[in-house]
Design goal:
single chain; about 240 residues; alpha+beta; BirA Bifunctional Protein, domain 2; SH3 type barrels; seven-stranded mixed beta sheet; 5 helices; 12 strands; about 25% helix; globular; binds adenosine-5'-triphosphate; binds biotin
């Protein structure tokens, strides 16, 4: 599939730019910015986006917009594969949308849908690549490839590799409704399954063992009393 890359020195958020372009009916585009002044995570949480990271959004017009959670999964698989290839580092996916290394977050993914006469999906990928430090509030939870590897990584190479991996998964599996294949690869690259986890919601903490992911990408949690409950992605945190 043909896609076009748009590069910017600075943007509020590559998600915003991708939305703007999709309003002009432009899709199959990749928006990359060297820095974002208002980068965001889920629920409008602040995403620290200084120069040195890879900040990009892929704008798509998928045939099927009922399964957007699989785009997040496909993006996560792509990032893990590319980090292995370009930085020779084995990272893992933490359900649903984080890539981490030794408990520190290296990458976050945010998929947003735009629904109207025509439907679009914007897959935002943020990778900490060459930053040397982070703001105080995330110093303990974030890391960059450079901080782990003690050497600089070529951001553009990483970007190209992720985009290639992503479009392969998108064309070969997502658009052919082969969601099971995406799920299988996701599981192979995730370290959440089989772990004892704590799920923190606004009102309570639930302890259990993550035993799998269902067809809608929800996490299946087995409680002490052997009951299995479904954890739906939302304003919750999973801790190992
Ligand atoms: P977690 O499960 O780690 O809390 P999340 O997937 O719930 O993350 P979001 O809800 O999307 O994350 O919010 C983004 C969070 O990521 C922020 O609240 C902040 O803690 C953290 N964060 C912000 N910028 C960065 C960054 N550049 N690298 C790593 N973590 C970041
Ligand atoms: C998360 O919180 O885990 C998701 C973070 C997603 C960050 C990326 S960086 C590129 C794109 N633009 C944004 O403003 N957010 C996403």
């Amino acid at each position: 599939m043909e896609y076009k890359i748009y590069r910017f020195k600075s943007l509020t958020s590559t998600q915003d730019k991708a939305k703007e372009l999709s309003k002009k009916k432009l899709s199959d585009a990749v928006i990359v910015a060297e820095n974002q002044t208002r980068g965001r995570g889920r629920f409008k949480r602040k995403w620290s986006s200084d120069k040195g990271g890879l900040w990009m959004s892929i704008s798509l017009k998928p045939d099927d917009t009922k399964n957007l959670q699989y785009l997040t999964f496909a993006a996560a698989i792509s990032v893990v594969k590319s980090i292995k290839k370009i930085a020779n580092l084995k990272t893992s996916i933490k359900w649903p949308n984080d890539i981490h290394y030794k408990g520190k977050k290296l990458c976050g993914i945010l998929t947003e849908g735009i629904f109207g006469n025509e439907n679009y999906a914007i897959v935002g990928i943020g990778v900490n690549v060459n930053q040397n430090k982070f703001p105080d509030e995330i110093r303990d939870i974030a890391s960059s490839l450079k901080m782990v590897n003690k050497r600089k990584i070529n951001i553009k190479k990483l970007e190209e590799n992720i985009i290639n991996n992503f479009f392969n998964l998108y064309n070969n599996y997502y658009n052919k409704n082969e969601f099971k294949k995406i799920l299988k690869m996701w599981k192979e690259n995730s370290d959440t399954i089989n772990k004892n986890v704590i799920v923190i919601t606004r009102t309570k903490k639930i302890n259990g063992k993550a035993i799998g992911v269902d067809d809608n990408c929800n996490l299946l949690l087995k409680l002490k009393n052997n009951k299995i409950i479904k954890i739906v992605e939302g304003d919750i945190n999973v801790r190992y």
